[in-house]
């Protein structure tokens, strides 16, 4: 059983919040009493999730946002504060992955896309979230890196590089803002049952049985297990945890 939290009166922002890890985390924030901002590049999915959360009785704001566009990110944070008056927690989760390919054959436009979303997008989100949290003198940010941010991976050079960058962004900003009441950490999921992973399986880029064989726990993860780690990192229970890249990977990197 996961611990429960009381985030009543607090506001949580989740990017990539319309599906997968983001949706699971937004749901857990809402169930813990937080007002939730669901941001995602898929505007139709945002609208659908917003209505579902409202129907369930949660405070929610849906925002269509492409995190690779800093102007949209700035607007997203502005809408959040305009609606709820503050920003207490953020899970910068939006990300993309391209098909596996030999490094020598990768296109520059794919490199640019992955880094524009996965690295620059996290930087832009942190930048504008921190402006609000700095003013408040409080806040918690969790950036979504990956198992790929901790190890290398053949034929996924760009994705791994971008996820390594997320850890660098997180630890450096964590050191900078710890004295200002803002805690920043990263979470590093292993293979988890999400639409992104389903897409990798469909394209032949991932065999689930292989991922299971590499995990000491003997299975892939569930989205709610990543959400539980994010909520803990945002909670008072992690009040002395700063600048950590937390593996949530079924033991993969412990081998």
UniProtKB/TrEMBL annotation:
* GO molecular function term, any single one: oxidoreductase activity
Entries under SMART domains matching the protein: PKS_KR (SM00822)
**Tagged with keyword DNA damage:** no
Q: Pfam families from the xrefs?
A: adh_short_C2
Q: Which organism is it from?
A: Kribbella caucasensis
Q: Does the keyword NAD apply?
A: yes
Stated name of the protein: NAD(P)-dependent dehydrogenase (Short-subunit alcohol dehydrogenase family)
- Known InterPro entries for this protein? KR_dom, NAD(P)-bd_dom_sf, SDR_fam
Q: Which residues form the Ketoreductase domain?
A: 10-200
**Organism lineage:** Bacteria, Bacillati, Actinomycetota, Actinomycetes, Propionibacteriales
| PANTHER family the record matches | DEHYDROGENASES, SHORT CHAIN (PTHR24321), ESTRADIOL 17-BETA-DEHYDROGENASE 8-RELATED (PTHR24321:SF8)
Check the record and name the Gene3D superfamilies matching this protein: NAD(P)-binding Rossmann-like Domain (3.40.50.720)
Question: What family name appears in the similarity comment?
Answer: Belongs to the short-chain dehydrogenases/reductases (SDR) family.
Keyword set, alphabetical order: NAD, Oxidoreductase
